[in-house]
Design brief:
mainly alpha; Arc Repressor Mutant, subunit A; about 200 residues
Length: about 200
Amino acid sequence: MKLGKLHYKKMTLEELVTLAQQEDFKALEEIVRREQKNIFATFTYLHSNNENIYDLTQEALLRMAKALPTLKNPKTFKSWLNQIVMHLFYDDLRKLNRIPPTISIDDDTKQDNNYTTNPHTLIPDKRCKPMERCLSNELDCVIKREMRQLPDYFRVPIVLRELQGLSYDEIAKITNTNVGTVKSRIARARSRLKDSLKEYI
């Protein structure tokens, strides 16, 4: 029985991955539709070379599609996909000899379970009224600029945490560090960003 497009849209990511691994092309299409914006945004905040971002996003999606049958546990898809993204990022960085949305500058070390992000509350602007957009294009550019000033060992974990919503354990695995180091680097990145953005928030 063929499944309608609406049915795929209602599926969880884990369900879609399972079907895609069974060569269900529609399921794979839905995964790509859901993930391409996240991947593009991740590269946007990680990378200072905007010319490469589109190509890197397409390459990440292509590698994901090709390697998906090898993923043993569909529940780990997000972390697995971010490993692909980070490998591409570092490879491109080495080629350029150079290396992160909006990020929370409030400590969340005590709220790691089921961590999720909301792009409208990551940088709280107290001057905004409820119905206003709190993050203007100008502020977004400032945040990206300040993020790119961070050392990559600060920038990468905070992007994975805030943009992708990964747990500290997942970030530690991707960055080949331990959880304590990840927490410390994210806290220090937030501290630096608070200083840099204090006139805006």
